[in-house]
Amino acid sequence: MVRYKGLGAVPTSGIAKRGGPMAPLGGDPRLVLLFSGKRKSGKDFVTEALQSRLGADVCAILRLSGPLKEQYAQEHGLNFQRLLDASTYKEAYRRDMIRWGEEKRQADPGFFCRKIVEGVSQPVWLVSDTRRVSDIQWFQEAYGAMMQTVRVVALEQSRQQRGWVFTPGVDDAESECGLDNFGGFDWVIENHGDEQRLEEQLENLIEFIHSRL
Known about the structure:
The chain is an alpha/beta fold. It is 45% helix and 15% strand. It contains nine helices and seven strands; from the N terminus they run E-E-E-H-E-H-H-H-H-E-H-E-H-H-E-H.
């Protein structure tokens, strides 16, 4: 059993251990930030803003949905590149991708986590779409004190202005709600539409990131 912030004691079975047979194949990061938040909360916007200021040579954005969509596209004969963007093409398959991804995670909770860290050499990793407690557990076990969690929040009105519409089977699924009751986020970024407030929060986070380099 391992005790995680916000989780209490949880079993370690199925979680990769550093140096063990399921250990990550990436480099040794100085900092791993796990970003989470609801659809249209601005997770991608925040991580891309951070990368643009830190530089792509220092900071890598890792997306758990990347290998999921790639393998889903291969198995179902779909266009992988079109599944990556915010298109109606992706939305048409979102619900079935969620179901398929859950089946993969149930068989191997660290499957997609291991995929995204392979070959990454930058010292700062931003995982832009953390969705489940099992994701946090895997990175905590693999990278320990180098890992911190960041929750991006936005008012429902702000999300609607960005195009969010409640979709049954998506917005009430674990992929959207899996971290609703996680009580131990290290950082909370408020992205309600106040650009000055967001800028202040990003500056604080960047200052922290520099302290780890």
